[in-house]
Design goal:
The chain is globular and about 65 Å long. By secondary structure, it is an alpha/beta fold. About 45% of the residues lie in helices and about 20% in strands. The protein starts with a helix and ends with a helix.
Length: about 260
């Protein structure tokens, strides 16, 4: 069952030294050739941090049904693209935000491994100005190289790096990054895969903000999400509701028989 597999995955992570207490955890089937035991991908996030991030939405009366980590959203972005003919290729996807960065390795549309970085394209020191493009490219290249090595490979193991970011003039940053990594680097700042005719009349504003919106759009368009940090909570509530309904139905049947 889902609950059993999720419990085993959490136990395996805890045994490996990964903190699972106070975390929202979800699992999804992973690529596996074992016919007797199924591998899963695990996503974790701090429950207090997620609750704090959701609070403005809850206060506004919005019912939140799905919560993703940036790495999960990067997987959705990968699957939203139809130009990936090689199922064995490994692609690196990067979400470069103002104050944080997420890197994900994806194979055959499945998230393999991810890493979160505590820096973004805005300089946290001083007047909060964007970092120099060369500095961003240099730091990101070093972090990507370390990430590839920690994952058991190298830059040669990766077919392409794709970057989703609200960084102004994103393409000017990808050129030095391509030179450092000796890899094809694609900035996701075009209308590829997006039906521009469906945009509102002021579609120009959306096109200008497309690089920062693309990741959210891809995550929202994939329904139901393969990984949802609220899934276990929803399933628990559904079971409780069904149990209460069964009790009420049993009482009603007993009363009718009596």
């Amino acid at each position: 069952s889902y609950e059993t597999m999720r419990g085993e995955a959490m136990a395996a992570l805890a045994a490996a030294g990964v903190a699972t207490r106070g975390m929202l955890v979800d699992i999804a089937p992973a690529l596996s050739r074992d016919a007797t035991r199924r591998s899963v991908v695990v996503a974790l996030a701090s429950s207090p941090a997620v609750r704090a991030a959701m609070q403005p939405l809850v206060d506004a009366g919005i019912r939140v049904r799905t919560v993703m980590t940036p790495a999960i959203a990067l997987g959705a972005l990968m699957r939203a693209r139809r130009d990936r003919p090689d199922p064995d290729a490994i692609d690196a996807f990067v979400a470069l935000d103002e104050t944080a960065t997420s890197i994900a390795l994806i194979k055959s549309g499945a998230l393999v491994v991810a890493r979160a970085l505590s820096w973004g394209y805005i300089d946290s020191l001083g007047a909060r100005q964007p970092r120099r493009r060369e500095d961003i490219a240099s730091r990101l290249a070093d972090d990507l190289a370390d990430f590839f090595h920690a994952a058991g490979g190298s830059a040669a193991s990766v077919r392409q790096v794709s970057i989703a970011s609200g960084l102004p003039e994103l393409r000017s940053m990808t050129v030095p990054l391509m030179e450092r990594l000796d890899l094809e680097v694609e900035p996701l700042d075009s209308l590829f895969g997006i039906d521009a005719s469906q945009l509102p009349p002021n579609g120009t504003d959306f096109q200008d903000r497309l690089p920062e919106l693309r990741l959210a759009w891809a995550a929202a368009a994939e329904w139901p999400a393969p990984l949802n940090l609220l899934r276990a909570r929803h399933r628990s509530r559904s079971r409780s509701a069904l149990s209460r309904a069964a009790v009420v139905a049993g009482m009603a049947a007993g009363w009718g028989i009596g």
